[in-house]
Design a protein that fits this description.
The chain is an alpha+beta fold and 139 residues long. Helices cover 27% and strands 28% of the residues. It has a four-stranded antiparallel beta sheet, with no helix packed on it.
């Protein structure tokens, strides 16, 4: 009976450890100093996807809200993004998807701001998801 109990504990321990490892890969990190909870574009549904887009802000003026407005899953193209913000600062492939990386750093006498954005595109060049992180610090 004790051997069975020991084996059961080992199995439960291994299963628990596996669950912890699996869940740790699903965590998100908060990157804004304002502690905003920002869902990804893929998690949101637009009420009017045909809404016209106004002029796109520069990376220095990009916010979570106007990024949501301009970066529309399955509608925004890689060409759109490169027209708005120029050539990517980094690019690569992950499986069949291509990703573009953009960064921007701004400093003045009052604050510092760093923006990091990764955009993921389908093989057809349509936006599938993006990750936007904006760090702002007062001096």
């Amino acid at each position: 009976m004790s051997l069975m109990k020991s084996t059961t504990h080992r199995i439960l321990f291994a299963a628990g450890l596996g669950a912890i490892i699996a869940l740790s890969g699903c965590t998100t990190t908060e990157t804004s100093s304002q502690s905003q909870n920002i869902p990804t574009q893929a998690q949101q549904q637009r009420t009017n996807p045909e809404q016209p887009r106004s002029s796109t802000p520069s990376l220095a003026h990009l916010t979570y809200q106007n990024a949501d407005f301009h970066l529309i899953v399955n509608r925004t193209t890689m060409s759109d993004v490169q027209r708005w913000w120029g050539p990517a600062h980094g690019r690569g492939h992950s499986g069949e998807f291509m990703f573009l990386n953009y960064t921007d750093v701004m400093q003045d006498d009052v604050r510092s701001r760093m923006l990091m954005m990764t955009l993921y595109f389908s093989p057809q060049g349509l936006l599938q998801d993006y990750d936007l992180q904006i760090h702002e610090f007062e001096k």
